[in-house]
Specification:
elongated; 97 residues; mainly alpha
Length: 97
């Protein structure tokens, strides 16, 4: 059986994780915008209604997954920055006491 380890959340670790997540969110955002503009410039097939409906569904799924991945990394970065702020406030209160 594997033993799980618990690491304390430090300000440095939270900010380092936020920098990584924020750094990954920038290229993901650029990729999302490239996907959306690529789909906007290419017309859907209009010869067959079924093909058009499948094309719309696939485009929606691809754009939605890209936006979801981008938003996930942005929220993780924001949460880690807030964790660092909370840890620093807690650390300052312990210093005063």
């Amino acid at each position: 059986m594997t033993e799980s380890r618990s690491y304390p959340s430090t300000i440095r670790n939270a900010l380092f994780g936020a920098a990584i997540a924020g750094g990954l969110s920038v290229p993901l955002y650029q990729l999302t915008m490239a996907i959306i503009s690529s789909y906007a410039n290419k017309p859907l097939p209009d010869s067959n209604q079924t093909a058009a409906m499948i094309g719309v569904a696939v485009r929606t799924l691809v754009m939605g997954a890209s936006v979801l991945a981008t938003a996930l990394f942005i929220f993780v970065a924001l949460g880690l920055v807030l964790l660092a702020m909370q840890s620093s406030i807690k650390w300052m209160k312990n210093e005063e006491s």
